[in-house]
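Schema walk-through. Below, the input block comes first and the output block second. Nothing else is stored per chain. Lengths vary across the set, and this one has 467 residues.
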Amino acid sequence: MVPSHKRLLLWGGLALLCLLRLVVAAQVPLVPDEAYYWLWSRHIQGGYLDHPFMVAFLIRLGTFLWGDTAFGVRFGGLVGFGLATLFLFLAAKQFFPQRGNAGLRAILLLNATLMAGIGLIPATPDVPLFVFLSLTMWALSHAIRDRGLGGPWSREVWGWWGLAGTGLGLALDSKYTAILWAVGLAGFVLFSQRKFWKAPGPWIGGGCAFLALIPTLVWNGRHGWAGFLKQGGRATQWHPGRAGQFLGELLAGQLAMLTPWVAVLCCVGLWRSRRENGVFLWLSVPAMLVFLWHVTGDRVQANWVWVLYPLLILTGAGYGGRLKGAVLTGGACTLLVYAQCLTGIVPLPAHLNPIARLSAGWSDLAHELVLKAHEAGASALVTDDYALASALAFQKPEGVMILGRDERWSYIQGLQHPAVKTVLYVEDAHYGPVPAGVMSSWRHDGAHPVRTYRLEVRHDLSGWWIW
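--- output ---
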């Protein structure tokens, strides 16, 4: 057990991290993908081309309370992160009763990761995914460790299976990668030595998962299964010659997001869990196999692997070794990132500063583009880049419309097709240079240029445009 004075110090440190997380969420401007999901939230529906609907629902909740601000967009996710922390705390206590401080260990490991410190602040589908997978683990911790509940035929156990299925269905309403947990859980139920499939609970859970998934299924059915096909198509590429590079990038990205020491503890814990809690390996193996297959064709983005993080945090808490050093180093890394976010204390060049590259200068850029559009007699700003269109739209520039030409917009109901004659076309030219005689604008982080945009007045609007 942790002495009372150390426990007080730990909870104080966690409270400080929580406060800093709120400050960062309020102060750092939105990144383009967040603005894209904000546009979704203005047109709530059962799904979208890229992801299911849950992130849009959370953003709508936050902006209803706090307005169209960075904090409002992120508020629902921040509340969700707090709930996920609670779910993992309770799950660890239930899974590892022999380790009295397992719940606290889970909280400390989670908050020592950069994934929790910075990755779950932006409003992305990964946030509700993490929340509902954590809920699923809490419910499973009761459903499969039914001490004192009357065995697998107990109605109370049925309720826990139902909650686990509901959590998994809502995770699928957040991001399609949750299907990997569904596959793993089905394998565990069917092939576990405890023969869970003979009891009603897992079947009740499966029914609850299906009911929770209905909005996503209905939307996909009405749109030719576009969401499933888009995400499933990622696994069809084949570039085995670059597999080593992609695998190296995958491992490096996960070491960064977990922080190296925490990553080692969690991986050791996952391996040790195979003897006592086979559910952890069953849930993790499908995702691991899919990611290893994917590196034979393309990069695995760092955030894709977050589907495994509830499992890793729990096994690290239950079976990992001493975590004092891991927590201290992870916490220090998180504080350094927060300091960079809030103060820009390290003067990094634009191409090495992802925070500024994604979030800085959008308001000033939008104002400058509006002025140039008026000078050119244009009534709209037009771009082919969905992220750029979304970032500009969030600024709500007065006097011009924001138009985009991208397949994604055709899947959002309620968007308009305005009639315009002259537009100012905006194209991301990255870091330049722009050829002489070509109109352009820079986006700045204070006095430092971050990104340049090529501008062109156009009168021919051939193609499909949508606002």
